[in-house]
Amino acid sequence: VVHRGQTQPFLDPEAAPVLEVAPGDEVALAVADRSGNRLPRSAKVDDLLQLRLARGFPLTGPIRVAGARPGQTLRVEILKVSTADWGWSAILPGHGLLPDLFEQPLLKISTIANQQVELLKGWRLPLRPGRSPSASGSGCCWARSPCSASPRPSC
Q: What's the mean per-residue pLDDT of the chain?
């Protein structure tokens, strides 16, 4: 088992592995959220603003596969993904995909139940860990066009 605290802020080929496995081994990963699991379900926007979020994201690992060499492609099969019964998303002015669009910070705590995430009252998205809603052909993702400073929906 690799625990939530065994993270790196960036992909770093020089980082020491937290675990070494043999090809074919199964590994359980407990991953951290963007806050490093320091934001409780009861959090308010002021709690988020008081966190000192590191640059990058908490990436669990690295894990060394015995016998693997740099440049090789490894096949990884994800057997199961489970989530908490809640999650959070935030808008911080000056950060993220839409840095200049919002003047006030926003924190949204969402409920996760019955394989759905309730983002707003009565507005639910199917829970598909590791996939965006648009990966299934439903939903919409906002993207910044490479030739425009304005965000546009890519549905």
A: 79
- Express each pLDDT in 79-123 by its tens digit: 888 888 999 988 888 887 878 888 899 999 999 998 888 888 888
| Residue length of the chain | 155
Query: pTM (2 decimals)?
Result: 0.67
- For the four alpha carbons of 62, 5, 112 and 106, in that order, the dihedral sign comes to negative
Q: What is the largest CA-CA distance in the chain?
A: 51
Cβ(84)–Cβ(71) below 8 Å: no
> SS3 of 5, please?
coil
Q: Which of 63, 64, 34 is nearest to 48 (CA)?
A: 34
Distance CA 85, CA 43 (A): 15
- Residue 152: pLDDT band by 50, 70, 90 thresholds? very low
Confirm if 113 and 124 have CB atoms less than 8 A apart. no
Cα atoms in the Cβ-side hemisphere of radius 13 Å centred on 76: 12
Q: Which long-range contacts (CB under 8 A, 24 or more apart) does 118-123 make?
A: 119/89
